[in-house]
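Complex 372.
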Amino acid sequence: MDFEKTIIITGGAGFIGSHVVKLFVKKYPRYKIINLDKLTYAGNLANLKDVENMPNYQFIKADICDYENIKKIISTNNVNGIIHLAAESHVDRSIVDPFTFARTNVMGTLSLLQAARDFWEPTGWSDNCRFYHISTDEVYGALELNRPEGDPSASECGGGPFGDKFFTEDTRYNPHSPYSAAKASSDHFVRAYHDTYGMPTIVTNCSNNYGPFQFPEKLIPLFINNIRHRKPLPVYGKGENVRDWLYVEDHARAIDVIFHKGVIGETYNIGGFNEWKNIDLIKVLIKVTDRLLGRPEGADDDLITYVTDRKGHDMRYAIDSTKLKDELGWEPSLQFEEGIEKTVRWYLDNQDWLDEVTSGDYLKYYERMYSK
Ligand code: NAD
Ligand code: TDX
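Predicted structure with thymidine-5'-diphospho-beta-D-xylose bound:
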């Protein structure tokens, strides 16, 4: 079959990547979608059961740091689009093992850029080719909590409910964790390939995602699983840090819009205008999970356990995604209450998925599927 485009999505077995792969495979039968993933602990092919037998989907197990192999994959498949999500993504792991983050997020991105350049540049960067790099709001550093909660004048003064500033596309980079420092470095390399060689690149910086298929080391799935098993909920510090939460399918939709309509060389911020103090979010999680499990309200409030704060814990992230709305017409589609209800319900309805991930059984999926 002749495909209109061949797109590599890196990190497609991870949380956000799997949603992006599923959206593209189903929505664009005329595109060939190659999910290129190393399958680290965070990659789970069970996330892709929906599409694994579709004719326009292919999985390739590969490491983005393996420049020679990536180069071969790009040229053999005549690839004209790359949507790059593969990364080490958990801040706590980056504090323990920064080298792995520099290797994957910095050197991996660089090797992917160079491999794409080797294939695309000699033909003069055809109109069709595009390198889209997915990044995070954490590269901008941390915002202050300088607004009394519930300040009625907040919306008229600009900023959000917890502070007078947002991250915009012009905010200076100021990463604090090894994770965000590595992501910031990769963003700079992508822009350097645009400015130096003329590569058609786009960068987006998104806020915290939540939803189905997230590895249960991140706050929301970890806590839902712990509530289910009545295990302690380790709240870092006083639980006062603020994050801006976006439902993962809304992020995937934004990636679709930006991949197709975004202006080359531009940066777009993606966010939900949905800030929550960790402790308030955790109370909502307990309430919804208990209700869906048929437990009395308040039954699990005592699981909240304040623990030593994360080193260098960023106080507040808040994204201003006005540019994306004004220029490309994207907006989040889901209200947080609805998104959280859907998410908790999904984890409770998919306990096999959670159990496979927490037991390590999911690591055998590749052998079962691909090594027959
Ligand atoms: P994830 O950890 O769930 O998935 C990462 C995927 O990348 C996994 O499938 C893993 O196997 C793969 N991978 C890791 N190293 C690789 C390598 N060397 N070669 C090939 N594949 C490799 O991550 P996620 O939460 O889905 O995040 C995806 C991207 O989005 C990351 O770039 C992250 O920085 C960015 N991001 C995440 C969030 C969030 O809230 N999760 C928010 C904004 C941006
Ligand atoms: O056990 C916990 N207790 C706790 O209080 C965990 C895992 C987290 N937290 C806090 C730390 C953060 O303030 O909850 C907040 C959210 O933590 P994470 O889920 O680890 O996300 P965060 O550190 O905010 O980073 C996330 O958003 C941006 C993603 O992991 C990144 O990949 C993304 O780039």
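Residues 10-11, 13-17, 37-40, 42-43, 63-65, 85-89, 104, 108, 134, 136, 183, 206, 208-209, 215 surround nicotinamide-adenine-dinucleotide (ligand 1) (CB under 6 Å).
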